[in-house]
Amino acid sequence: MKNNSLVEVKNLKVHFPVYGGILSKIVATVKAVDGITFSINEKETIGLVGESGCGKTTVGRAMINILKHVSPDVEITGNINYHLNGVEADFVKIPSKKMKKYRSDVQMIFQDPYASLNPRMTVKQIIGEPLQIHTKLSSKEIQEKVIWLLEKVGLQPEQANRFPHEFSGGQRQRIGIARALATNPKLIICDEPVSALDVSIQAQVINLMMDLQEEFNLSYLFIAHDLSVVEHISDKIIVMYLGNIVEIGTSSGIYHHPKHPYTKALISAVPEPDPANKNKKRIILKGDIPTPMNKPSGCAFRTRCPIAKPECAIEVPELIDAGNGHLVACQYYNEEF
Ligand SMILES: Nc1ncnc2c1ncn2[C@@H]1O[C@H](COP(=O)(O)OP(=O)(O)O)[C@@H](O)[C@H]1O
Ligand SMILES: [Mg+2]
Fold first, then answer.
1. Where are the alpha helices (DSSP H) in 168-250?
2. Which of 30, 36, 230 best tests ligand 1's pocket when mutated (most atoms within 8 Å of CB)?
3. Beta bridge partners of 19
């Protein structure tokens, strides 16, 4: 059963102030995440998709509470309520310096494994570092655990003394996964972990991640800009547009019965391998994605929406249930176009 809630995100907003002028006043606000609500259960994979700039990475960083570290002025509101070993923790409210005891439970892996691995550290040091920080293991025990982790991710113990540049992209991502796994996390935020890899390698890394999920009862928030990557691995898929969720559904619900006009356009852009479906309609959206510094009023998608009405400029649409828990942020979703 996959119904024990691990984390509930409620009305999360992440706004970055933009400074300008000689007095460095706030001249604008980037509404990177603008009121999103969803939850992740234990052992569940949630796919998070949407075009570049819609706020996916910001959601991931908020969920491991590292945004203030990089941008001290960021405004974060809402809740990110974790249930960790019987302890409740709202990551929106916990200051960075009090995060240490939770860091081991929620880990992140990144799109570019090379940039996220210290080039001057050996693999053994990279994977051993979180063990040194978060556990009381002796150096011999750490060494043993590193070797065990390397085997878990399909690398050889002999490779422990090598440096990141001696590995291929796929192997580097395996090192990143081993490092994330080291502290026995409950949730791993996976920020486009295979986008930079060759297609053949992508499948290997994803299969590895699925095996590890089974073995270690992991939950994943799997971020991708491409729906086809998350379709087969996600229990649920969340579609974002300009800082808001436009649709949440099961993987097959989103893929085969998309409701929101934006999701329909995204699905129509996925290449169709089955020749029988070759003539499916491709939906081309008009215009470019606006900036989150100057979001359209009401429904942010309305400026590109094929079924937009004047009313859409007035109120931000709520997520409504389109049946079986499939949520869509558009009351006109049944309209053909
Ligand atoms: N530290 C920051 N300061 C200011 N703006 C930011 C910061 N981080 C992200 N943004 C802006 O927030 C928006 C969402 O970015 P991001 O979460 O990286 O989107 P995605 O991962 O979907 O491509 C973008 O407009 C980006 O420029
Ligand atoms: Mg990103």
1. 169-181, 199-216, 227-231
2. 30
3. 26
Global pTM value: 0.95
47 CA distance to ligand 2 centroid (A)? 13
34 with 28: CB under 8 angstroms? no
Number of domains within the chain: 1
Kindly report, residue by residue over 101-156, the tens digit of the pLDDT. Answer: 999 999 999 988 778 899 999 999 999 999 999 999 999 999 999 999 999 999 99
The per-residue pLDDT for range 149-182, each reduced to its tens digit, is 999 999 999 999 999 999 999 999 999 999 999 9
- Write down the number of H helices and E strands in the chain: 10, 12
- 218 and 212 Cβ atoms separated by less than 8 Å: yes
**Side-chain half-sphere CA neighbours of 219 within 13 A:** 23
Tell me the CATH number at 272.
3.40.50.300
What range defines the domain where residue 236 resides? 5-105+185-328
Q: Would you put residue 287 in left (φ > 0), alpha (ψ -120 to 50) or beta?
A: left
Q: How many CB atoms lie within 10 A of CB 117?
A: 22
C-alpha–C-alpha distance, residues 244 and 331, integer Å: 16
Residues 207 and 194: beta-carbon distance below 8 Å = no
Residue 54 CA: nearest ligand 1 atom is: 22
> Ligand 1, from 26, 58, 63: best to mutate by most atoms within 8 Å of Cβ?
58
